[in-house]
Amino acid sequence: MDDLEKAILLASDSPAAAAASPAVRAEALAFCARARDESPPSSLLHLCLSGLASSPHAHVHFWCLQSLHDALLRRRLVLPDDIALLRSSLLSLALSSNAASPPFLRNKLAQLIALLIRLEYPHVYPSYFLDLVPPSPPQPGPTDMFARVLISLDDDLLSQEYPRNAEEASDAGRVKDAMRAQCVPQIARHWQEAALSLRAADPAVAAVALDAARRCISWIDVSLVANDLFVPLLFDIALSPGSVAPLAAAAVWCLSAVAAKRMDARAKVALLRSLLAAQQGFGSPDSGLKMAPLVTAYAVEALECYRKLGFSDPDGAAAMEMLEEVLPGVFAAAESCDDDDVDSGSVLEFLSGYVSTMKAPSEKQLGHLGRILEVVRVQMSYDPVYRGHLDVLDKIGKEEEDLMSEQRKDLVALFRSICRVAPSATQLFIRGLLMTALSSAEVSVEDVEITLTLFYRLGEIVGEEEIRNGTGLLREIVPLLLSARFSCHTHRLVALVYLETITRYIKFIQENVQYVPHLLWVFLDERGIHHQNAHVSRRAGYLFMRAVKLLKAKLAPYLDTILQHLQDVLGQFTAMDWTNKDVKLSSSEDGSQIFEAVGLLISIEEVSPDKQVQCLTALLNPLCQQIESLVMDAKTQGLEESSPRAISLQQIVVALNMISKGFNERLVMGSRPTLGVMFKKTLDVVLQVLISFPNVKPLRSKIISFLHRMVEILGISVLPCIPIALRQLVVDNEAKDMVEFLVLINQIICKFKSSASAILEDVFPAIASHLSVILSQDAFSNGPAGSTEEMRELQELQRTLYTFLYDIATHDLSTVLLTPSCRHYLETIMPLLLFTSCSHKDIPLRKVRVNG
Questions:
Q1: What ranges in 638-756 are assigned the alpha helix state H?
Q2: Using one digit for the tens of pLDDT, what is the confidence trace for 112-135?
Q3: Burial class (CB in 10 A: 0-12, 13-18, 19+), 826
Q4: pTM
């Protein structure tokens, strides 16, 4: 034992181990493992019992107890004499336990005794609990040890909060049944005596005893605890100013377990009535926070009784009356959900259930809903300590934003329920918040953010027709919001939710056009596109584009005003010095949504032709001039993908693409052909970029997108330009590049049909030749390589190729494949087509090929 003791100390975190070398510690660990795993079971038992009896070191005691637990759990200790010796030794240790000994040793001893109880009680040794229950009056050491045994037994076997297998469930049932028949009344009397006698002498031990009681209440006769002696004692401990916090909390949790005891609804009403009679006013706001677990459990159970029995039943009505008595305490707890003593999830679950029972709320219930709305507001509000982080959105701010987003999900669901039950009260609540925020020069970021967020969420519940007509207080609140300028409007959070909320209610402005100027100023001044925060400015641009799409014709009279206030944004491309290698564009500087919005406005047919030409010229000419200047510089100095010039060219092409989105072929080529000429000239300029730098892949991708738009709006007039573009696009392609190229060809085929035959005849040989190199019959791999990104790109290319061939066949272009220049390449593609039709693992693709 001496050698083992030394090895245990070296292998642990004892002072001896700190001075030992790693090699010595490793050797000690190996020695301990051999002693535990290779010693005969009886020898290990005697070795460990000797260590427990003779060693003064806690680390040695723990190792001995852990080794015995492992041996018992693994069924290494099976001889009756060995088990009897172990049992008597452990019970002796438990009965002589000192409450001052290290908790980790008492817990391990309790765990080992709990395992013995599971294996032997009551069929082998029926006296475990009779031996362990401390005599009266309870002493700290034995009381603490007995409580820990019950807690370990609950954790490892009896509790239904953890998943149990069939054997564990059977063992648990056996132990509970035997305890109920033998000793539960005696144990319950011990809990009461321990709480009474030790609350002042040793409150920590009294708290542990009550914790053990709480765990057992769910499966014992509730009258053993819920009686005229124990319940008043628990209330007195819970509410007494002299009770230390852990003991008071343990008493509250015991009472909560009593309230949550499963039983028939009528019996539960009687139980709840007895709790209320034992301590009048425990649901008041003053005691609500201290008694939070109890008032929450009480409210949940009372609500459940009401649901089961109904208001017409006397007991059901009584349940609702008792619920009303504890609601102030529930609200007090709910408003302090950041307190460690409050289970915010349980409180929120109750509040949601309570609201769901309301159909036509009474005046009293409307008052309760107002309190719940305030709870929602408080719990959804950001902590001011994160204000700066959330403004710049650094790592800490992003984490807090993500955390709050998750935390708000259930609160938003509760808010929606209240909106449905009491829409007028909800609007009145939000109006009050908004008026308070607008009237104070010192209103906080957090208060404004949550006010706007709740109004935004209201817009998700209110129907479109109600928003359009300004039902209820919306006719007052929306105009109020449109003209709002909060003192903290520069903060990112406030600015973003303000813009989102305005956009949510934009249908109101569709029906109330007198507010269109107010809406425009929201987006055009420093609250929107000109906000000092780049992210806000970018988001404002996107939301402005959405607003233009919705309001479109109603904005025509304001076109000059809009362009005037967007002049600095639209002109930044021509003002930028792209020869400076240090120039870097943030994502907010691409201006794409602004260009789309302006394009949509210019394309409104209510705008005169002359005005359209004037505005479009002012947009397109500077951008085209910038392209020409950049191309000229790049030809002499080269153009790398990541260079400022390449990035600027990409963004200008994107801007041109966005401008074109507002136009269609009927307008551009029909009623306003001058516009078509302007876009055709713009296309010629963009194609010069492609001709000069066909191998800059990101730039090429943006140009392809622009070509798609030009095909749509210029119609047949674009065909002469197409061959120039296709000749540049078909060379030096990887699989993903060819997919983009073929999608463009497919659009041309579907748009122009037989009119595209000359283009197809010209480009098909190059397509087929290039694809024959990239693709083969085994492009679809069934092996591990089939999951690689490269293989997925090849598979996508093959699908796009077959769509290309199918479009040729279904748009009267099959004869092109039989021309002398194409026939040879058709012979290259046919074997792959036949192979796919017969063998491809993608069945829908096989069908497409057969149809083709």
A1: 644-660, 665, 673-692, 697-714, 722-729, 735-752
A2: 999 999 999 999 999 999 999 999
A3: middle
A4: 0.81
